Fold:
Amino acid sequence: MMNIAILGATGNFGRLFSAKLLANPSYQLTVISKSAGNIFEDSFRVTAKTMDATNLKDLKNALKDMDIVYCAVSGPDQAVIARNLVKSNPKRLIYMTVVGIYNELEGEGAEFNLENETEQIPNRNAVDIIEESDLDYTILRSGYLIHGEEDDYAITKKGETPKGYVSNFESVEKVALEIIEKPELYSRESISVTKDMI
Structure:
């Protein structure tokens, strides 16, 4: 049984991804958010932790014995949460954020780059903290999330221009599951998973 924690489990992506993970009977989930107990019920394979990830002591306790931590949080507290993740020292971290944090978007979509969008600042600050740590991490950057075909995506790495600024939920889930199944995949790398719009 693999123990997986999902931070931001009640968000748009977190809720769908948690359901996807529960389809695999070999995964045991700890779902974490400020409202986890309102959405999830404790069961044989699910533990709901209603908590604030900015609280280091609570987060450390929640992440103890986890094989994988998937972070899908957003908002202004990301840098605090990223520091707490580094201090919690998970075995394997997948940190989900968005394209544009490195000013890597070109053409249509460049408006979402850090230099043009102040809402990107917390995303970039959190990623900087994680990338400067010793954690075994993957930064997984998505575009604007819509529903679509699972295989309609292209992967680019840090320093490369993403193929677009839109991503399918299903594609991001697929890549995340691949990393969970093969934790060495994209270790200490930042990748984007977007629809190929070029």
Observations:
- Strands lie at 2-7, 27-33, 46-50, 68-71, 93-98, 137-142, 144-146, 154-157, 166-168, 189-194.
- Residues 61 and 164 are 38 Å apart (CA to CA).
